[in-house]
């Protein structure tokens, strides 16, 4: 069965372009919306597997799309959401990850989506339970104050950054040219140093991402 998608984007050309792209890669675009109210109505009417939404939408062009997405995830715990942003906005990424159980969410920067096949694969990973954050957002987080991440070695921080981008242990091993066993040891060390309790591995990976988001002194926005 194809993944059913509701797409929310106020720009007509971008909305239609994304709808066509998703259709080409085997997704079923059940509905599109141009504002936050339309997004909520479309989800209620079509019960999608995935919402792809812009963060800034009419009428205020602040965080309307994000607020509706977070509310929908509270109402529908299994709903996957991928938010698209023009800027690196750390507070928005944190708010999205804090919604629901922190799984089935993605935060991507529009101008860094250059490979449509990779974008489609990212959407499928999120629907399957993954958590994906744009590497540029991860980079900003790692450049800021790291407590409690200061206990992590440089390699462990590198591994944690790749976890935050949604990569599996095997994918991390390929990226860093390490064995999967070695990556597993680094991941275990990250969990231990962040004092994460024994739990399902996927859940602890989400908690690790949230740990360094919450290590920031405040949920202020940052833009580049």
TrEMBL record:
Domain of life assignment: Bacteria
Residue ranges of every copy of the HTH luxR-type domain listed in the record: 145-216
Gene Ontology terms for molecular function: DNA binding
Keywords of this entry: DNA-binding, Phosphoprotein, Transcription, Transcription regulation
BP term (GO), one: regulation of DNA-templated transcription
Gene3D superfamilies found in the cross-reference section: 3.40.50.2300, Winged helix-like DNA-binding domain superfamily/Winged helix DNA-binding domain
Statement: the UniProt record of this protein carries the keyword DNA-binding: yes
4-aspartylphosphate modified-residue sites: 54
Location of the Response regulatory domain: 4-125
Pfam families reported in the protein's UniProt record: GerE, Response_reg
Keyword check for Isomerase: no
PANTHER family the record matches: TRANSCRIPTIONAL REGULATORY PROTEIN NARL-RELATED (PTHR43214:SF24), TWO-COMPONENT RESPONSE REGULATOR (PTHR43214)
Name listed for the protein in its UniProt record: DNA-binding response regulator
Organism whose genome encodes this protein: Bailinhaonella thermotolerans
Lineage: Bacteria, Bacillati, Actinomycetota, Actinomycetes, Streptosporangiales
């Amino acid at each position: 069965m194809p993944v059913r998608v509701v797409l929310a984007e106020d720009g007509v050309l971008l909305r239609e372009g994304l709808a066509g792209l998703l259709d080409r890669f085997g997704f079923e675009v059940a509905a599109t919306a141009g504002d936050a109210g339309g997004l909520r109505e479309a989800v209620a009417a079509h019960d999608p597997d995935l919402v792809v939404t812009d963060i800034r939408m009419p009428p205020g062009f602040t965080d309307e799309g994000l607020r509706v997405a977070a509310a929908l995830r509270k109402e529908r715990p299994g709903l996957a959401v991928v938010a698209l942003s023009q800027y690196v906005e750390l507070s928005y990424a944190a708010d999205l990850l804090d919604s629901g159980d922190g799984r089935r969410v993605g935060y991507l920067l529009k101008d860094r989506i250059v490979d449509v096949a990779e974008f489609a694969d990212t959407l499928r990973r999120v629907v399957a339970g993954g958590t994906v954050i744009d590497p540029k957002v991860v980079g900003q987080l790692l450049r800021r104050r790291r407590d409690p991440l200061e206990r992590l070695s440089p390699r462990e921080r590198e591994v944690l950054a790749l976890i935050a981008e949604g990569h599996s242990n095997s994918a991390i091993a390929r990226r860093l040219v390490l064995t999967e066993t070695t990556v597993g040891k680094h991941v275990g060390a990250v969990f231990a140093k962040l004092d994460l309790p024994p739990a399902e591995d996927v859940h602890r990976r989400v908690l690790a991402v949230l740990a360094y988001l919450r290590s920031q002194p405040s949920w202020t926005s940052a833009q580049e």
